[in-house]
């Protein structure tokens, strides 16, 4: 192959064990407990006992090794995109942290990353991994790695966390996008190069994956999986066209990759002593930067982040959870930006423009469904946008009713907005079992349907004798809303009017969201009136595309408004840059 010799590290069977998935009430409760209780526990001698609060998963960390995954045969790319076994693609979260000042650091970097991943757990629940580096000394030659299948709290035990020594590190929580839900595809991917180890975590999906795969294979590079994330890792090990003089020019390699593959991805890339954050030129996937501040800074909690001293830096798919790890939101990584994080601080290395000066295309579905409500995108909190979606929906599709409610928790913000605009009272009508996972991103239709049956109960005192407007954020396959309506009618609802705080989903996504085929999307089979009859509602209406854009843009604050834009491909069929010819899914 050209450039730096590169090989994915493959430990022996004795070096690793597969983390077993344990979807139990105790395990699920532990994730929430960890996130809620770590406000002041991220400094030296952190003793958060992940084991004590949960049922233990079977895991084993491999300190000093490059990866804890075993080698498996390559798998077909989801056995053809749109296979029934795939859930809703995209759903991945990336996170990185680096300590500033003198190393070894007084911050437990591995714990910071673990808790950052807990905050991103909603972005993927199939697998997770953490890679750390000591950055200096003999320990810097290898990375410390632990990853496995299942939820964060099942994978990272006290023992495995102790082995993740380091002054910097990256992590990933995964929902399968371009490859099967198997341990061999767990991220971050780690490879050895002639110039040291390299680790990559990826959120998104390459739209030109196959052409890039052929290019990499033609240069003699072996690929052990069908994951486009491994492909990115190996592509980074190729020399840029202009060549290199004194060792690898990683920014040039990253820029070359961005020119070869303009979307869709947000990446965190770790070398032994630095982290690169990369957002594709379209800005299709989110990525933001935070600053770890001293815990004694309480008196300055209202100060802007740039005025506070830094004990470290974090980079994340979302800003949710920053406060719980002692960090403050600083800014988004700009579309096309390559940002470098070192012990000395952060700096922009380069910004790669969109091909042919096209507009940016941030995924509008992040606002609708994927992101946590307390995350910040484009200068505004996701909750506020969802509230505005509800207000706009009330203007477009008002109805005579007694109360407004929501399908928890995805439709709650929009329901409050609808109620305020319509002058109606908001009341809870559904009780949610918090120990059942999100039905939308579970890997199979059967699991989704079983999830609905276990997920909700009706608050009959609030429902009986009422005309109800029920708000949800979206309808994909139509599997969940019918049983919910039946539940509410059984509880005594006189009328149930469904209002959806987003437009109908009509098209598949080729950029990392699992909307597999047009045939599976209920809006392609039934219009709003037909769907209302199908699910047993008195009426059903969607927010318009223009209404959604209006809600998103109302308080948007971006650096270059003239370039700002949103991807609405799943709603309109208008794909950023057009649909690549090689896509035949």
From TrEMBL:
Q: Which GO terms describe its biological process?
A: 'de novo' IMP biosynthetic process; purine nucleobase biosynthetic process
Catalytic function, reaction form = 5-phospho-beta-D-ribosylamine + L-glutamate + diphosphate = 5-phospho-alpha-D-ribose 1-diphosphate + L-glutamine + H2O
Query: What Gene3D superfamilies does its record include?
Result: 3.40.50.2020, Glutamine Phosphoribosylpyrophosphate, subunit 1, domain 1 (3.60.20.10)
Where, by residue number, is the active site? Answer: 92
Which superkingdom does the taxonomy of this entry point to? Eukaryota
* InterPro entries listed in its UniProt record: GATase_2_dom, Ntn_hydrolases_N, PRTase-like, PRTase_dom, PurF, PurF_N
Pfam family membership, one: GATase_6
Family to which the UniProt record says this protein belongs = In the C-terminal section; belongs to the purine/pyrimidine phosphoribosyltransferase family.
Q: How is the cofactor bound?
A: Binds 1 [4Fe-4S] cluster per subunit.
Q: Which intervals hold domain Glutamine amidotransferase type-2? A: 92-344
Q: What is its EC number?
A: 2.4.2.14
**A Gene Ontology molecular function term of the record:** amidophosphoribosyltransferase activity
Cofactor names:
[4Fe-4S] cluster; Mg(2+)
Where does the chain bind Mg(2+)?
Answer: 410, 472-473
What is the protein name given in its UniProt record?
Amidophosphoribosyltransferase
Which key words are in the record?
4Fe-4S, Glutamine amidotransferase, Glycosyltransferase, Iron, Iron-sulfur, Magnesium, Metal-binding, Purine biosynthesis, Transferase
Which pathway does the UniProt entry assign to this protein? Answer: Purine metabolism; IMP biosynthesis via de novo pathway; N(1)-(5-phospho-D-ribosyl)glycinamide from 5-phospho-alpha-D-ribose 1-diphosphate: step 1/2
Ligand binding ([4Fe-4S] cluster): 363, 509, 567, 570
The species is Anopheles triannulatus
Looking at the UniProt entry, the stretches that span the membrane are: none
């Amino acid at each position: 192959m050209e450039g730096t010799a590169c090989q994915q590290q493959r430990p022996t069977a004795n070096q690793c064990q597969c983390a077993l998935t344990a979807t139990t009430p105790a395990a699920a409760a532990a994730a929430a407990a960890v996130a809620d209780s770590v406000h002041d526990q991220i400094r030296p001698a952190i003793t958060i006992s992940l084991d004590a609060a949960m049922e233990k998963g079977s895991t084993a960390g491999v300190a000093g090794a490059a990866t804890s995954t075993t080698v498996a045969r390559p798998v077909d790319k989801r056995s053809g995109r749109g296979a029934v076994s795939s859930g809703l693609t995209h759903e991945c979260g990336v996170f990185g942290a680096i300590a500033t000042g003198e190393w070894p650091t007084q911050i437990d970097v591995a714990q910071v990353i673990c808790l950052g991943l807990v905050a991103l757990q909603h972005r993927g629940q199939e697998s997770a991994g953490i890679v750390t580096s000591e950055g200096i000394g003999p320990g810097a030659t290898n990375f410390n790695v632990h990853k496995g299948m299942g939820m964060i709290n099942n994978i990272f035990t006290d023992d495995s966390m102790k082995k993740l020594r380091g002054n910097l590190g990256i992590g990933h929580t995964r929902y399968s996008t371009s490859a099967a839900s198997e341990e061999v595809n767990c991220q971050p991917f780690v490879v050895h190069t002639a110039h040291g180890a390299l680790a990559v975590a990826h959120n998104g999906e390459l739209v030109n994956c196959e052409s890039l795969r052929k290019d990499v294979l033609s240069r003699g590079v072996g690929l052990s999986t069908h994951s486009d994330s491994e492909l990115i890792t190996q592509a980074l090990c190729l020399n840029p066209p202009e060549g290199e003089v004194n060792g690898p020019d990683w920014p040039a390699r990253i820029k070359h990759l961005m020119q070869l593959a303009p979307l869709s991805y947000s990446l965190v890339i770790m070398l032994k002593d630095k982290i690169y954050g990369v957002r594709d030129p379209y800005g299709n996937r989110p990525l933001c930067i935070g600053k770890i501040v001293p815990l004694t800074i309480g008196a300055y909690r209202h100060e802007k982040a740039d005025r506070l001293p830094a004990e470290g830096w974090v980079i994340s798919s979302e800003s949710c959870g920053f406060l719980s790890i002692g960090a403050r939101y600083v800014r988004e990584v700009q579309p096309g930006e390559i940002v470098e994080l070192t012990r000395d601080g952060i700096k922009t290395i380069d910004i790669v423009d969109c091909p042919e000066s096209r507009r940016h295309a941030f995924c509008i579905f992040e606002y609708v469904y994927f992101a946590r409500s307390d995350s910040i995108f484009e200068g505004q909190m996701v909750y506020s946008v969802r509230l505005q979606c509800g207000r706009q929906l009330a203007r477009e599709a008002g109805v005579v009713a007694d109360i407004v409610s929501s399908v928890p928790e995805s439709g709650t913000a929009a329901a409050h907005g609808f109620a305020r605009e319509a002058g109606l009272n908001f009341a809870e009508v559904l009780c949610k079992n918090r120990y059942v996972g999100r039905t939308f991103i579970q890997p199979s239709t059967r699991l989704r349907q079983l999830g609905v049956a276990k997920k909700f109960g009706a608050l009959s005192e609030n429902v009986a004798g009422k005309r109800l407007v029920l708000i949800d954020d979206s309808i994909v396959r139509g599997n969940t809303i019918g049983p919910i309506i039946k539940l509410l009618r059984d509880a005594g609802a006189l009328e149930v009017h469904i209002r959806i705080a987003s437009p109908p989903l009509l098209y598949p996504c080729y950029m990392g969201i699992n909307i597999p085929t047009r045939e599976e999307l209920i809006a392609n089979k039934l219009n709003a009136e037909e769907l209302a009859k199908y699910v047993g509602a008195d009426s059903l209406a969607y927010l318009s595309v223009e209404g959604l854009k209006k809600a998103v843009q109302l308080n948007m604050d971006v650096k270059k408004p003239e370039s700002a834009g949103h991807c609405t491909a799943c709603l309109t069929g208008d794909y950023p840059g057009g649909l690549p010819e090689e896509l035949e899914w």
